[in-house]
Design a protein that fits this description.
Blueprint: E1 9-12, H1 18-25, H2 39-47, E2 51-58, E3 61-69, E4 77-85, H3 92-107, E5 112-118, H4 122-130, E6 134-144, E7 150-159, H5 160-169
Parallel strand pairs: 4-5
Antiparallel strand pairs: 1-2, 2-3, 3-4, 5-7, 6-7
Length: 170
């Protein structure tokens, strides 16, 4: 990756973006890192006020997507259900997540944005921490894989005041 800052633009996804979302979450490099939903489950989530799908674009092409859940939570807790990039490791994911944080805290009444990440996913955990997410704990053996093994996830979050402090310092 060059020293040129990576930039992305966000767009709220629509039904016509579903094929991109499903193709991206089914890339082989995402097999053990993110979940996969059926088209029916995605369509139901997209139709719900409780979810938001966002697509990241770089140079006019889609490079990733994110799914936010619990947008109607009365306590201001929103969850990052999934984030996936077409080409991990090129810096688009960090730029996307940075823009996503701005979108969440500017466009919603979110007080706490949280996520769960597999503890073995060191790259993602590093990116989340670099953008201000704090590890709150470990969800032990919370996911059962297809081979019946169980894996841990780290619970991480960032609060609105923490995001505001980062923006003020930046």
């Amino acid at each position: 990756m060059s020293d040129t800052p990576v930039t992305v633009a966000l767009k709220r996804a629509a039904a016509e973006d579903l094929s991109f979302v499903m193709a991206t979450e089914r890339l082989p490099e995402h097999e053990s890192l993110i979940g996969r939903w059926s088209a029916e489950r995605h369509m139901a989530a997209m139709a719900s006020d409780d979810f938001a799908y966002l697509i990241a674009f770089a140079s006019g092409a889609p490079v990733g997507f994110a799914i936010l859940r619990e947008l109607t939570d009365p306590h201001g807790n929103i969850g990052l259900q999934r984030i996936a990039m077409v080409a991990p490791g090129r810096g688009f994911g960090r730029a996307f997540l940075d823009q996503l944080l701005d979108w969440v805290f500017a466009e919603t009444s979110c007080h706490r944005l949280c996520l769960e990440v597999f503890t073995a996913n060191a790259r993602a955990r590093h990116v989340y921490a670099s953008l201000g997410f704090v590890e709150e704990g470990i969800l032990r053996e919370v996911v059962r894989r297809g081979d019946d093994t169980r894996v841990d996830q780290a619970l991480m979050s960032i609060l609105r005041p923490e995001w505001q402090a980062r923006r003020s310092a930046g």
